[in-house]
What does this fold into?
Amino acid sequence: MVKYLYVEIAEALRDDIQKGGYGIHQKLPSETDLANQFSTTRLTIRKAIDLLVKQHVVVRDRNRGTYVLATQSKISSGSSGLVGFTEAAKQFQLDVSTRVLDLRRTIVYPDYVASKLDLAPQEPVWQIERLRMADGEAMTHEQIYLKQKILPELTAHEAQGSLYRLIEQTIPIGYANQELEAVVLEKGLSDLLETSPGQPAFLAHTVRIQWTVIQFFMITRIIVLINTRSITSCNVNIKRRVLNESNCLVGSNPSWIRW
It folds into this structure.
């Protein structure tokens, strides 16, 4: 059986990735550079990359290039390679519960949400505020903006569970673009998390992305208490600032980190 050249190139690139030639989230060379490397055309390289995308080996960002995805053999997580609070807590045999503080369909949201999610004018989103508990202890405060077209209908009862599970009935989640900050809680958020002002915490700015092409569909801002039960583990670019309730809805997502 004849093996097409683009298939051979895709296999060679996949072997390089599996052997560590390209690291997780590393950008692949351009189509032109790969064409020169394999002495072929850019069209053949494009077909090889298309095959790797379908195999969930790489992901395309039309504005930045092609990046290597984490393999499920390296990261213990959900069905698509990401782990949510519910899944992570259960791995630690913790009893998970959620209090939905706010759930609304809205066309009014900060400019950065419209820009990051590439929303059309007045495109509706779900605005969700949740308090997540483990064994009855408040662990995280979440502020979420989710494209309504991903979940056309969403009840408060559904919002108490894993949003990952609901979303993956519609689209496969690829990975998350995330920045993590070390912060100090001020009154308001500290009250919600049932702790005193001045306590240390993590603030995670996250954008969830679907497979195949870079398409942002959900922004999550999570306050995670730093204590012996925190279930956050990643390599992070740490910054420190004072966080209060009024400024917890703004931020950016420049780095490639998993939470």
Q: What stands out?
A: The radius of gyration is 20 Å.
